[in-house]
């Protein structure tokens, strides 16, 4: 087996704190397709409608094609993530999606199919700008994993709030075509710089991009294996936790996404002024940002299945109070946003605690793709209910029942299969190879577990 070498840290030079990885991943993630492409899409609707003559629905449909492309890409990226170094995935993904995003400036009146194709490619190529960051964080943080994930996704949420504020004046100054190009250049410069300077996986070594399973510690000339505990993808598919996580959190994502897209027209229908209804989206975003950070702090201290069940039930309270006056609606929306933020933290946390990190990329890629496709149906279901019955009220009880079922499913996840290793974060920050040895020993013990014993654990 080919091995790579890890040399000792130069005397007098301290190893960089893993928290810089969070900062780098957070800054780069602010430039991902979510904040930059999808987050600003609404601002391009009117100018493109005026110049190209496309309907608002036609312009907005770019989101659907991007989501479909990203769902496919996540599965592919997940497989690559278990084989390639993260930078070999993240940097080409940012450069590729940014290039395609800039090409949106070239669409003309008769090129609607090209417009949809480019959005599909934005999602497909941009799929490598999310889950590789979570792998990097998971490698460094075990005891404070929830907090690390929460801070990183908090940056991403901030990006979703800031990018529209940046895109609006760019459209005013350079037109919508120029704004696409400027935003693409921003992605290329900021994201690639942050990743190159700050983001890396603990003890990760590669040869021409391909990961190696052993490293030589130059301090002792000993060989250290880089195995990590966890289920294979096939084992994960046979575990009840895989399906419980997918179905439990997937239902919550479908509901919250449906609310998010339908919120403004729903509230206008119920008597809220259009300007106030639009401001509710800001409340939703800010509360989601708080939920991401606060949720990470709580998840490290309270069993995730309890937090998950509560988070899934929280939107029910919001759904029941989405009625005037505006103050009541604002509080209800804030509650829903808070739940949405915490839910984003739970996905990666649940996967690593119940399914491990042995084939993390493949597992998280499939689950995230399933979440994305499920969430895409939320707005469709809400809109279809309104078109059929003339009101959103008829579909809300159905979602409430679904959320209750999801909460019960999450509550039944059971105890963590892979709980945090005491003192791991401090050890990893000081000696990444020593941390690797602990995980390798744990993986070795797991390898000796018989199928019967494994089944008994489930």
From TrEMBL:
SUPFAM superfamilies attached to this UniProt entry: MFS general substrate transporter
Protein location: Cell membrane
CDD domains membership: MFS_YcxA_like
Record InterPro entries: MFS, MFS_dom, MFS_Riboflavin_Transporter, MFS_trans_sf
Pfam families linked to this entry: MFS_1 (PF07690)
Keywords in alphabetical order: Membrane, Transmembrane, Transmembrane helix, Transport
Domain Major facilitator superfamily (MFS) profile span(s) in chain numbering: 21-417
Source domain of life: Bacteria
Recorded topology in the membrane: Multi-pass membrane protein
GO molecular function: transmembrane transporter activity
Residue ranges crossing the lipid bilayer per the database entry: 20-46, 58-81, 88-108, 114-134, 146-167, 179-201, 242-263, 275-294, 306-322, 328-351, 363-382, 394-414
Residue ranges the record marks as coiled coil: none
GO cellular component: plasma membrane
PANTHER family, alphabetized: RIBOFLAVIN TRANSPORTER RIBJ
The protein's name: MFS transporter
Native source organism of the sequence: Acrocarpospora macrocephala
Organism ancestry: Bacteria, Bacillati, Actinomycetota, Actinomycetes, Streptosporangiales
């Amino acid at each position: 087996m080919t091995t790579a070498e890890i040399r000792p840290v130069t005397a007098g030079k301290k190893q960089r704190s893993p928290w810089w990885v969070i900062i780098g991943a957070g800054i780069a993630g602010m430039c991902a397709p979510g904040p930059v492409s999808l987050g600003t899409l609404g601002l391009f609707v009117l100018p493109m409608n005026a110049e190209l003559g496309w309907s608002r629905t036609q312009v907005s449909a770019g989101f659907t094609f991007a989501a479909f492309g990203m769902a496919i890409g996540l599965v592919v990226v997940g497989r690559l993530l278990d084989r390639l170094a993260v930078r070999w995935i993240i940097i080409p993904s940012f450069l590729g999606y940014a290039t395609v995003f800039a090409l949106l400036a070239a669409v003309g009146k008769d090129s609607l199919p090209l417009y949809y194709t480019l959005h599909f490619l934005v999602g497909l190529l941009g799929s490598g700008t999310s889950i590789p960051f979570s792998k990097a964080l998971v490698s460094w943080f075990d005891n404070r994993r929830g907090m690390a994930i929460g801070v990183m996704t908090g940056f991403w949420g901030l990006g979703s709030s800031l990018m529209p504020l940046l895109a609006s004046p760019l459209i005013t100054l350079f037109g919508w075509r120029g704004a696409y190009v400027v935003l693409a250049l921003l992605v290329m410069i900021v994201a690639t710089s942050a990743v190159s300077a700050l983001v890396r996986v603990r003890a990760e070594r590669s040869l021409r991009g391909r990961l190696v399973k052993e490293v030589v510690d130059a301090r002792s000339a000993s060989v250290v294996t880089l195995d990590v505990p966890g289920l294979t993808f096939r084992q994960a598919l046979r575990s009840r936790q895989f399906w419980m996580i997918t179905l439990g959190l997937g239902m919550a994502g479908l509901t919250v996404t449906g609310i998010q897209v339908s919120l403004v027209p729903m509230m206008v229908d119920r008597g809220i002024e259009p300007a106030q209804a639009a401001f509710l989206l800001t409340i939703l975003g800010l509360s989601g940002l708080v939920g991401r950070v606060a949720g990470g702090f709580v998840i490290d201290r309270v069993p995730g299945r309890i937090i998950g069940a509560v988070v899934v039930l929280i939107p029910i309270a919001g759904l029941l109070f989405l009625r005037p006056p505006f103050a009541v609606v604002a509080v209800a929306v804030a509650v829903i946003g808070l739940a949405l933020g915490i839910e984003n933290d739970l996905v990666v946390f649940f996967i690593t605690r119940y399914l491990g990190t042995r084939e993390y990329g493949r597992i998280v890629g499939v689950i995230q793709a399933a979440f994305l496709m499920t969430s895409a149906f939320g707005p469709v279901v809400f809109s279809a209910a309104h078109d059929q019955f003339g009101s959103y009220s008829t579909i809300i009880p159905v979602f409430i029942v679904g959320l209750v079922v999801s909460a019960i499913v999450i509550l039944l996840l059971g105890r963590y299969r892979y709980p945090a290793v005491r003192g791991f974060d401090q050890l990893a920050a000081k000696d990444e190879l020593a941390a690797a040895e602990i995980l390798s020993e744990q993986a070795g013990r797991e390898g000796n577990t018989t199928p019967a014993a494994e089944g008994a654990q489930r």
